[in-house]
Write a structure and sequence with these properties.
599 residues, mainly alpha
Length: 599
């Protein structure tokens, strides 16, 4: 058997053979045409995700079988989520300071922060576990590859006579190709060592023409298959798919199609290289399609920015209704902006900054409007306090002719006065209503037996009915309905032939409640009859029963989770819902107690 010792001095000193030369050529070509990993995260698409979608994608990665090895993708999503939370906290900070508050007093915990922290913690554990297993696997692969190199070395130095060299080298090359990854720090030396001994093998094999021709023939067939598949990729509709598979074909060429006889060496390589270049030229198709789509996205996002800008700069003096409608519209536009795809990279930052700036400008203008209302609301409060004092001064008066007209005027003036600070709304309304109720209850008690008073009652009710008919769904309509219903209940009987007005009033009331999307039980009512109080108590009991059933259902659902604590970020919203329902339940029970106790 020919061994390394049988080679002539010239053969031992000749330069690297075709194996190393061609490998270097392929490596240079792959470096110039390096493809993206198809599993790598697409930064542009992730950048356009909403915070909720980014958290969902992170959760999907954590629950995937290969979670630990998807570090790059998870990290990009984590940065996106952190960026979104930071932006939203900054928005809250701007709103806080725009409201005239000191920055050092600002405190806000984003509702998604705990969930993000939990996802990061879980992923870190899975990634650490993956790295530990990978290190162990790489160590096994290193030992395996070193044993393959030893077998390759023995193949050309110590092979026994009769060994089928062609079969043996094929098995070694296939086993090397299928061996797993090793650490990056070990790969270069290991790879160079392998190709060194492979080169030595082929130098030895050069002295055995029969074996060498078999190897050349086999590798040429491999090259022809690779070239044929590369030609098919020229017509592959999906450009990125073609580029990814071409990268795999170059890997096969390097690992399984070397060497071939000199007459085919350059010819086959040039043919493969020419096809590769044509496929790489198709990148322009992919780039053109992406550019067209990104330009369309940019135009759409700029239109959204323009619309928000117009909303933040109204031509006419805006009122409360305008700003409430604008707030809803801006929220829709914000969602639409985030769902719209990527824009050209060089314009991405400017486009995003323009969007954030115009959102802040809108919020600042809106906040300034509501800040300006505080002065007028204080003035309205002062005017209503004067009405309350007048009502209290006259609530025991029995000068019916003058006092009835006075209280009617007081109620009309109350409706005309605008909003007061929200913290005072219920308090002053209760005071004013109590004073009015005291007067009308006294009036009803002293004059209910008089037929003339019945006629006056009819006139008052008719006026209230006409007033109720004029109410629409404008701001303050609910308060007006409450005032009208309270006044209606405080008016005594009407003549028998005029009792149809009660049915007409109830029908009109239901229509107005439906128009304003409120439940009749939500209205504040006083002066109800015994039957009316009983009916109201029955309805509240029904609501209490429904709420208790909903709370039990939600608490039962928590039992399905392994960790049903409040610290679990996935269950925080559920606990908040239960707390809200329990608070509502306590309010209903309190109201029921007041009715039963006659308070």
């Amino acid at each position: 058997m020919t061994t390394e010792n049988n080679l002539s001095e010239n053969e031992e000193q000749k330069p690297s053979t075709e194996v190393q030369e061609t490998v270097e050529t392929i490596e240079n070509t792959e470096e110039n045409h390096q493809e993206e990993d198809p599993d790598a995260p697409h930064h542009d698409s992730i950048a356009d995700l909403s915070l909720a979608d980014a958290l969902k994608e992170m959760e999907k990665i954590i629950n995937s079988p290969n979670a630990g090895e998807r570090f790059r993708e998870f990290n990009v999503l984590k940065e996106k989520a952190n960026h979104s939370i930071h932006d939203e906290v900054e928005d809250k900070k701007h709103e806080y300071t725009d409201g005239g508050n000191a920055l050092e007093n600002f405190s806000y915990e984003h509702p998604s922060q705990s969930k993000l922290s939990g996802l990061i913690h879980i992923f870190r554990e899975k990634h650490d576990y993956f790295q530990k297993n990978q290190e162990e696997e790489q160590k096994k692969n290193l030992d395996h590859r070193q044993s393959i190199i030893e077998r390759l070395k023995n193949l050309y130095t110590n092979s026994e006579p009769g060994v089928n060299l062609f079969k043996s080298i094929r098995e070694i090359k296939e086993e090397w190709s299928n061996s797993g990854q090793v650490a990056k720090s070990e790969f270069k030396i290991l790879n160079n060592n392998y190709f060194h001994h492979l080169n030595q093998f082929y130098q030895m094999l050069d002295l055995n023409k029969e074996f060498l021709e078999q190897e050349y023939s086999h590798n040429l067939e491999k090259r022809q298959h690779i070239i044929a598949r590369a030609k098919e990729l020229e017509n592959e509709p999906a450009v990125q798919k073609a580029l990814n598979e071409l990268q795999y074909l170059h890997k096969l060429w390097k690992e399984e199609a070397e060497p071939v006889s000199e007459e085919f060496r350059e010819k086959t390589w040039e043919e493969f290289k020419e096809i590769s270049n044509k496929i790489h030229e198709r990148k322009t198709e992919l780039s053109a399609a992406i550019e067209t789509e990104q330009n369309a996205n940019l135009e759409k996002k700029n239109e959204i920015i323009t619309e928000i800008k117009n909303l933040s700069e109204p031509k006419d003096s805006p009122n409360h209704t305008y700003w409430q409608n604008s707030i809803k519209r801006v929220e829709d536009l914000r969602s639409e902006f985030l769902k719209t795809g990527s824009v050209p990279r060089k314009l991405s930052n400017n486009n995003w900054n323009d969007f954030k700036s115009i959102l802040r400008a809108f919020n600042t203008t809106k906040n300034n409007y509501y800040k300006s209302l505080k002065g007028s609301q204080q003035q309205n409060l002062d005017e209503k306090m004067k009405l309350i004092q007048t009502a209290k001064d006259n609530m025991l008066s029995e000068d019916w002719e003058l006092a009835v007209a006075l209280f009617k005027k007081l109620q009309e003036d109350w409706k005309k006065i605008g909003h007061v600070p929200k913290s005072m709304t219920n308090k002053i309304w209760d005071e004013f209503r109590d004073a009015c109720n005291t007067f009308f209850n006294n009036y009803r008690e002293k004059s209910s037996a008089s037929t003339d008073n019945w006629k006056e009652n009819y006139k008052l009710k008719k006026d209230l009915l006409e007033e109720l008919k004029t109410i629409s769904d404008e701001e303050g309509s609910i308060e007006k309905i409450e005032a009208i219903k309270s006044s209606w209940n405080n008016i005594g009987k009407v003549p028998r032939d005029k009792m149809a007005i009660n049915s007409e009033f109830n029908k009109t009331l239901r229509e107005k409640l439906k128009l304003n999307k409120i439940n009749e039980l939500e209205l504040k009512e006083d002066g109800l009859s015994e039957n009316q109080l009983t009916d109201k108590a029955r309805k509240i009991k029904s609501q209490i029963s429904d709420l208790e059933a909903e709370i039990v259902k939600l608490e039962n659902n928590l039992a399905f989770f392994k960790n049903p604590s409040r610290e679990n970020p996935l269950l925080r919203d559920t606990y908040n819902t239960i707390d809200d329902k329990k608070a509502h339940l306590e309010t209903l029970k309190h109201n029921l107690h007041n009715i039963i106790a006659g308070e």
